[in-house]
Amino acid sequence: MDVTFKIRRRNPDVPDQQKPYWQEFTLNEVEPTDRVLELLHRIKWEQDGSLSLRRSCAHGVCGSDAMRINGVNRLACKILVRDLGEKIQVEPILGLPVIKDLIVDMQPFFDHYKQVMPFFVNDEPLPADGRERLQTQSDREQFDDSTKCILCACCTTACPSFWANEQYVGPAAIVQAHRFIFDTRDQAGAERLDVLGEPNGVWRCRTIFNCTPACPRDIEVTKAIGEVKLAIRKGATSGIIQPDAIH
Ligand code: SF4
Ligand code: F3S
Ligand code: FES
């Protein structure tokens, strides 16, 4: 089959390409099972070597090729042509500065990620037998879903609250915080809840729900955010979080 790609492009180094514009490419002999990433490679290798995109693993693991494809955030390496049809529109993800073509500046995204202390904190010595810190199966299940995050930014850049206010930490950072807040072995949950109780934390989430269907790992993002909101409310009533931080 023939497939027409309409790609949103921008090149800050070329004077008449500094403003975003659309460019069309047609590919022949496309198989329905071809992935969008392969076809973007074909365009780059066969038609226009200047087309710029970010990718690494090509197998849905690294999270580097998030794009807006036919109006929906997806990983280009996971979506097949048969699920899109003969006309495919590709744009950079929204809400982050475009560097070139499909490549956005991920620094603001990772700045929010760092805000929530996305690492295990426990300064107590290991048990005397030198074995790992144990937890029950049900304890582990509390944060199992949020361990699946690959930091692709599909959720955060699908969120209208983030589009409206780039200071909002965004759903991805909250999912990462969730992974540690609900880990019984971690000791920095209250600090993370303090960060997320600030005005640009979880309360910027208006439960719009765009983030959950955008997640290529099928993480229940909105549910995780709801659990963090509840933890802050409980913390507020027990004096861990200042109630003023909640509005
Ligand atoms: Fe990507 Fe899902 Fe993680 Fe959001 S929660 S960054 S969509 S993997
Ligand atoms: Fe945004 Fe998801 Fe909340 S789309 S408003 S973070 S439920
Ligand atoms: Fe790694 Fe798509 S290239 S997730």
Descriptive notes:
The chain is α+β, with helices and mostly antiparallel strands and 247 residues long. The protein has two domains: 3-104, Beta-grasp domain (Ubiquitin-like (UB roll), Roll), CATH 3.10.20; 107-245, Alpha-helical ferredoxin (Fumarate Reductase Iron-sulfur Protein, Chain B, domain 2). It is 29% helix and 13% strand. Strands 2-1-5-3-4 form a five-stranded mixed β-sheet, with helices on one face. Strands 6-7 form a two-stranded antiparallel ribbon. Helix 2 (107-115) packs parallel to helix 5, helix 5 packs antiparallel against helix 6 (189-196) and helix 6 packs across helix 8 (221-237). It starts with a strand and ends in a 10-residue tail after the last helix. Bound molecules: iron/sulfur cluster, FE3-S4 cluster and FE2/S2 (inorganic) cluster.
Determine the CATH superfamily of the largest domain.
Alpha-helical ferredoxin
- CATH topology of the largest domain, what is it called? Fumarate Reductase Iron-sulfur Protein, Chain B, domain 2
Low-confidence stretches: 242-247
CATH class of the largest domain: Mainly Alpha
Largest sheet composition: 5 strands, mixed
Overall geometry comes to: elongated
Round the mean pLDDT to the nearest integer and report it: 94
Task: Report the CATH architecture of the largest domain.
Answer: Orthogonal Bundle
Strand content: 5-15%
Q: How many strand elements?
A: 7
With strands numbered from the N-terminus, the spatial order across the biggest sheet is 2-1-5-3-4
Structural class: alpha+beta
Order of helices and strands: EEHEEEEEHHHHHHH
Terminal residue distance: 54 Å
Alpha-carbon Rg, integer: 21 Å
Helix fraction, binned, reads 25-40%
Number of helices: 8
| Ligands and ions found | iron/sulfur cluster, FE3-S4 cluster, FE2/S2 (inorganic) cluster
Overall tally of domains: 2
